[in-house]
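Researcher: Please predict.
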Amino acid sequence: MCGLVGYAGFAGRVPRETEDTSLKVMTETLACRGPDASAVWAEEAAGMGHTRLAVVDVVGGRQPMVLARDGRTVLAVAFTGEVYNHARLRAELASLGHRFSTRSDSEVVLRAVDAWGEQAPSRLEGMFAYAAWEPGPKRLTLVRDRFGIKPLCYAQLDDSVVFASEPKAVLAHPALTPRLDLDGLRELLLSAHPMIKTPGRTAFAGLREVAPGTVLTLTPQGARATRYWSLDPAEHGDDLPTTVARVRQLLEESVAGQLTADVPVSVLLSGGLDSSAIAALARPAVGPLHTLSVDLGDRASDQDVMEREADGPYAEMMVAHLGSTHRRVRLGTDALADPVRRAEAGRLRDGLTLGDFDTSLLALYRAVREHFPVTLAGDGADELFGGYRWFRPEDAGAESFPWEATLERADLTRLLDPSLAAALDLPGHRTALHRAACSELEHLPGTAPAEAALRRDSYLSLTRFLPCLLDRADRLSMGVGLEVRVPFLDHHLVEYVFNAPWAMKTFDGREKSLLRAAVADLLPAPVLARRKSPYPMVRDRAYRAALTAQVACLLADGSPAADLLDTAAVRRLLLEPAEATRFPRQGLELVLDLDQWLRTHRPSLHL
């Protein structure tokens, strides 16, 4: 998987002594992403650093990789992620005269960029981000995969650019300091509450992300962003039996491709339809199948507004069905409410956390990493096949992101200083984001209004909601040196299912009908029939009590977040009954996370 960093100058030579030191510091910042090796490369105008998690060609895949001709460097590449069709591309490139010295997909990317330039990303299948520097024309190319599974961000200076897999690594460069402005605070808040990701934005002023499916080219003449992939409507001409068969074929191909590795691979198995399908499809292709799940227990709970059903019995059913070697990672309330664990999750994410959703996932990933550098997960299936509760014809077409009401994530700006909340105008900002997102999707002529509304909600879920989950999975997994692969986000599968009529996706009166039909022969009947059950959250009232105590301590001891908060409102929050609403819990988590984020990054405030 790995992490990358780098800089490039466009106005002559760069001071090597200063930049070499910066490069090493930036690279060390991402050591957790690549525990197996690290290296740096530099020339007079550019430099790259790389930390490696060795998954394919453990010996030969070291980076950054450099291509030289006639004794001169013509191309340098730093790459993160996995290219699942690298064997086919290697054969094609070899037929064009390219000679390989490794079996790694990293060298395939190097040669693909050399052969096809900015057309290379469209040839790659997988999850990836890379930086390519060409010294001759002084051209830097930054690329991100179609769904933004792998991160890549950058900051432009007067005559140079600094880039890295994560904001913390970019900000480790001495020319940059963290700054928080109103737009950044909006992004910080909305990406956690209610989980809306703005493509290209980060919480830090002046620090951008390469948008998913985008090639960003930077030269002395300026910057140019080009989309090489987008999710567009297309005619679906297959009947239902053909569609079901095609979905099964695409799933099989995706899972088989994503099992390729030179290290042990596991599968996350909650007992839900999505993870169970992945595990069942993986079983024939691996030796002993290893699966893992998280267990938060079932102690006395608050009202479960998420309508969760315990995973344990279904996971055990699948384990017996598949004959897998299974491990349940059991976590108690004390562990989930531990401020040290919350702080770790926040530092890894460079943003606000999702409370126990994040601390439990981090613990699960750490347990997986004890034996497996790679695991498969079911992310993306609900957004693609229509598994969430907001995919209902009667709710489609609302003038807001469809999950805002369904997730019941309250507007936490009531805890902010009133003048700051007014300046942020989050309701107005959400409306503008929604309109901009909707404008990206053009429906085919003659599309029925109900069909268009549901497809639009699927598009919004895939491009604005799912990125929040993918960012969470990447940061927390790579924080422990674990690679998480997501077979449901194979772009061939996504394009096909996205354009299937909604009547097919619910042909038997249930959500995710296409997926159920495609894997009907692989799963026990109770698992196959199981409805969506969200990722588990702790339901013990002791968790709320622990958060209350931690916030009370912050108010007593002082917090850097105090200037952003209405402290009177926070004090009233401490007294709200836990049974009344989920707001007290979310509000407490917001206060703790803002405090942690400000302590970690110490940004200058421009609010």
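Model: The first strand starts at residue 3 and ends at 9.
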